[in-house]
Design brief:
Blueprint (H helix, E strand, L loop, with lengths): L17 H17 L9 E5 L20 E2 L12 E7 L3 E9 L19 E7 L6 E7 L5 E9 L2 E5 L11 E7 L11 E9 L16 E10 L5 E4 L14 E5 L1
Parallel strand pairs: 1-3, 1-13
Antiparallel strand pairs: 2-3, 3-4, 4-10, 5-6, 5-11, 6-7, 7-8, 9-10, 11-12, 11-13
Length: about 250
């Protein structure tokens, strides 16, 4: 077979029997169907779970229900650290667990709702209705500071909102932990872990109905690290602009 994975068909069809020709065409069709489409990952399957406590280290037993999703580098980058994610959903919201290999925590911001993307951070984008250019963006730093946003994206012109009366059922739960060092600014480390819960009540500006088995959302998962200049990771590729929602992938609720 050639490098592109397609079978070579005989140039002279008369030399092939009728059944052989049909088999060859079938193989070609199956090869096309199973080929990945561009640089887009296969759809992410999100499994159902009960609600559980957030600890920052992924020790909850519920995380054993699902496997890791590897997040590739978006560009060549200078630090090829491993980045991987787990996702779950419950009757009340979305759970996310990130593992980020690292060597230094480039994180100085000591407050929520700051421009966290300018330092080490993980980012989760969730778009419940692909017909609407609106989605939730959630960022969490190694120091456990967060930035929840609702984004309305009109052809690249962003109108973003932070939550008001941010408490009760609308409040996220989040925690982080560090291996091989302390959780402090510029600390050396082997890795850091981020764990968060995003309640559906927080997403109501962009969420019309709760996900059920068989529901598909659009979304993307990102990481930014600054050990050796800005390095980007993305589950579904884009130009480096995380707000290219037309490049979001499929999140399928099992």
């Amino acid at each position: 077979m050639p490098k592109n994975g397609f079978p070579v068909l005989a140039k002279n069809n008369q030399r092939m029997g009728r059944s052989s020709w049909h088999i060859a065409v079938l193989i070609l069709l199956l090869s096309c169907r199973n080929m990945p489409s561009g640089d887009t990952q296969d759809k992410v399957v999100i499994r159902r779970s009960a609600d559980f406590d957030i600890t920052g280290d992924g020790s909850a037993a519920e995380w054993q229900k699902t496997g890791w999703i590897s997040i590739p580098l978006l560009d060549t980058g200078k630090s090829g650290y491993e980045t991987k994610v787990k996702l779950l959903y419950s009757a009340t919201g979305i759970y996310c667990l990130y593992f980020c290999e690292d060597r230094k925590l480039t994180a100085t911001m000591q407050q929520d709702f700051m421009d966290l993307w300018n330092e080490d951070v993980i980012e989760i984008f969730l778009q419940p209705d692909e017909k609407k250019p609106a989605y939730l963006e959630y960022e969490l730093s190694p120091l456990n500071y967060e930035l929840p946003l609702v984004i309305f994206n009109e052809d690249g012109k962003l109108n973003s909102w932070i939550p008001f009366h941010y408490d009760g059922r609308r409040k996220t739960r989040h925690a982080t932990s560090v291996r091989g060092g302390e959780r402090k600014t510029h600390a050396a480390a082997d890795s850091w872990t981020a764990e968060c819960f995003i309640p559906y009540d927080l997403m109501k500006p962009v969420l019309d109905k709760l996900p059920a088995s068989g529901t598909t959302w659009k979304g993307n998962l990102y990481r930014i690290d600054y050990d050796q200049g800005e390095t980007l990771w993305a589950l579904n590729r884009n130009s480096g602009n995380f707000h290219e929602y037309r490049n979001f992938g499929d999140f399928y609720f099992e």
